Amino acid sequence: QMTRKALFPGDSEIDQLFQIFRTLGTPTEVTWPGVTQLPDYKSSFPRWPRKEMKDIVPNLDRDGRDLL
């Protein structure tokens, strides 16, 4: 069953980014090679660990999570 709600409901650009980081983990050079070279990357971004998608969207099957 879908909730029809935004997965990352940020109310500003930085809040949106942090919503994503809280869920998918703060990107690192290991998970996203070159991320530290992006113009707006900040080494001071908070570090959040990655959460498992099956825990975030438990009603979505493997194919759905892969698509997401």
Automatic annotation (TrEMBL):
Keywords: Kinase, Transferase. It comes from Alaudala cheleensis (Asian short-toed lark). InterPro entries: Kinase-like_dom_sf. It comes from the Eukaryota. The lineage of its organism: Eukaryota, Metazoa, Chordata, Craniata, Vertebrata. One of its GO terms (molecular function) is kinase activity. This is CDK3 kinase. The keyword Hydrolase does not apply.
